């Protein structure tokens, strides 16, 4: 069970992801979480830096779908100006939303990555779906809701076990 919490790649932010390498590996789609992955949980819109990154992603021929456990207003208000499709109230790590995102992308799991800031939702769901998972550090942890804070506590317990099993290196928090 704990192995499913281990992402294939860990980076500080989406800006550190090597898009050329993903494309060379056959990746044509990104499923991404919203809050604390792309922007802080209370940021209503994309930053100019994020908008530029999304343009770079599109220029590489990689499509993006936002999959969030948040509500329709939050996810829609953020995604619509960017012209990005989205899935809200995803209930990650449940697989329904991941399947829906793959359908939107018209891709299979081997052509798609999942980017998120939470092991218990984004990484677990992505790994269960067979996606290449990328864990980013949360942008604004102080803005997180109670559900996310509970997940963070569970992640700490899981990290202890993963370290004991040699599946998570100490220097890679």
In helices, the fraction of residues equals: 25-40%
- In the CATH hierarchy, what is the class? Alpha Beta
CATH superfamily: HAD superfamily/HAD-like
Largest sheet features: 6 strands, parallel
Proportion of strand residues? 5-15%
Plain-language structure description:
- This protein is of the alpha/beta class and about 170 residues long.
- The chain has a six-stranded parallel beta sheet, with helices on both faces.
- The longest helix has 19 residues.
- The chain is globular.
Provide the descriptors you would attach to this structure in a database record.
38% helix, Rossmann fold, 6-stranded parallel sheet, 6 helices, 14% strand
Short note summarizing the structure:
It comes from Paenibacillus yanchengensis. Pfam families: Hydrolase_like, PGP_phosphatase. By secondary structure, this protein is α/β, with parallel strands linked by helices.
Describe the secondary structure blueprint for this structure.
Blueprint: E1 9-11, H1 19-24, E2 29-32, H2 48-59, E3 63-67, H3 72-79, E4 86-87, H4 96-105, E5 112-116, H5 119-129, E6 132-136, H6 146-164
Parallel strand pairs: 1-6, 2-3, 2-5, 3-4, 5-6
